[in-house]
TrEMBL record:
This protein's name: EF-hand domain-containing protein
Domain of life of the source: Eukaryota
InterPro entries, per database record: DD_EFCAB10 (IPR049760), EF-hand-dom_pair (IPR011992), EF_hand_dom (IPR002048), EFC10 (IPR039879)
Gene3D superfamilies attached to this UniProt entry: EF-hand
């Protein structure tokens, strides 16, 4: 008969290795992102949509980032401390870089063309163009 403690040790080791793998490759974050995108987009053909999203991620690190309108407004307001209704080009670029969640998006935030002053509508548009952020 096998020693029950030896079986338990093997089980614990397998679980530990699985946990390390999930953490190392950020699998839980991936599924959380995919679930968020699915809930937001609600595609008709979920399988094809997920395949497309994963292909996009593989090509360019593209991760759709989902923020509510209120969250984007709050971020804009943090940079528009005087409440003048616009932020400078530099402030907008800093805000975009703060929101970037990959090197790909960070580069796009640094390079995207914009005017000297950016209002809230323009900021939300730039979030979408540079980072793929879709306000809810």
């Amino acid at each position: 008969a096998q020693n029950p403690l030896a079986i338990q040790d093997v089980d614990n080791e397998v679980l530990q290795e699985a946990d390390e793998y999930l953490r190392k490759h950020k699998i839980l974050e991936l599924f959380e992102d995919l679930t968020t995108i699915l809930a937001y987009k609600q595609p008709e053909n979920m399988d094809a949509f997920l395949i497309d999203v994963l292909k996009q991620r593989k090509l360019n690190g593209n991760r759709n980032i989902v923020y509510s309108d209120t969250e984007l407004q709050n971020i804009f307001t943090l940079y528009d401390l005087k409440g003048v209704g616009f932020i400078t080009k530099e402030q907008c670029r800093e805000a975009l870089k703060t929101l970037a969640n990959s090197e790909f998006h960070y580069q796009k935030a640094q390079e995207i063309p914009m005017g000297e002053k950016v209002d809230l509508f323009g900021f939300i548009k730039l979030c979408d163009e540079a980072l793929g952020i879709k306000p809810q």
